[in-house]
Amino acid sequence: MHNASPDRSLWCAAALMLAGILAMHQLHRPEITPPSVPLTRFPHRIESWSGTDVPLTQNVIQAAGLNEYVNRIYHATSRPPVTLFISYYRTQRTGQTIHSPKNCLPGAGWQPIYSRQLSIPLAGTKPIVVNEYDIVRDTNRVLVLYWYQERGREIASEYAAKFWLSFDALTRNRTDGALVRVTTPVRGGRGRAEQRAVGFVRAIFPHLGRFIPN
User: Fold this and answer.
1) Most buried of 23, 50, 113, 138, CB within 10 angstroms?
2) How far is the C-alpha of 197 from the C-alpha of 132, rounded, in Å?
3) Domain of 107, in residue numbers
């Protein structure tokens, strides 16, 4: 498995510095959370994909501190399914923060075998960089793409996400944000799985701005 990017120490130091500034300033004023469409209304039909909700248990929702979420399996004819998970937090100041898949998935028994950052071209806007993550459990192999969608930014690095969280809390009085994760089984070759997941990301991306505030 590949190691994290070499700028980790820089992002960590910057995030810690900003966190210290936040602590000194004692920002207790009401946090700004721009209005958005509830995630429950995220489209069930996207291009040729049709989605079925898989509700989380109340215990999981409470443990994760989720304000809103989508957990949905999308099917299309003659293709393996794609699962979309979006977790949204209106605030991350109260001790509940977005959980990194690199921590959660191994805790559920999935073992990582490969990771990298992948640039995905998008129509009409700049490419986004996401985390690509191969995991296995027993005989099952799954490809995962994920990134942090936070206050108008698409962020792959966990360390960069922490930096911008502290920065925006200080300068914009906002800590809202979301994790977007797309998973699909590796069947018929890894290249096809990657192509399928990337295509799905490109299909859902234009919809995200309605549900995750910029």
Assistant:
1) 50
2) 10
3) 8-32+42-211
Closest CA to 118 of 198, 10, 4: 198
- CA 202, 208, 210, 214 dihedral sign is negative
User: Would you say residue 126 lies in a domain?
Assistant: yes
pLDDT band with cut points at 50, 70 and 90 for residue 130: very high
Please answer whether residues 4 and 116 qualify as being in contact, where contact means their C-beta atoms are separated by less than 8 angstroms. Answer: no
Whether 113 maps to a domain, the answer reads: yes
Is residue 37 assigned to a domain? no
Q: How many structural domains does the chain have?
A: 1
For 20, residues 6+ apart whose C-beta sits below 8 A from its C-beta are none
**What's the CATH code of the domain at 195?**
3.40.1000
Task: Give the 3-state secondary structure of residue 156.
Answer: coil
pLDDT recorded at residue 26: 43
Residue 206: count other Cβ atoms within 10 Å of its Cβ: 13
Q: Would 27 be classed as within a structural domain? A: yes
184 and 142 in contact (C-beta within 8 Å)? Answer: yes
User: What's the mean pLDDT in 10-26?
Assistant: 58
Q: How many CA atoms lie within 13 A of 37 on its CB side?
A: 10
Q: 184: Cβ–Cβ under 8 A, 6 or more apart, which residues?
A: 80, 81, 82, 83, 142, 143, 193, 196, 197, 200
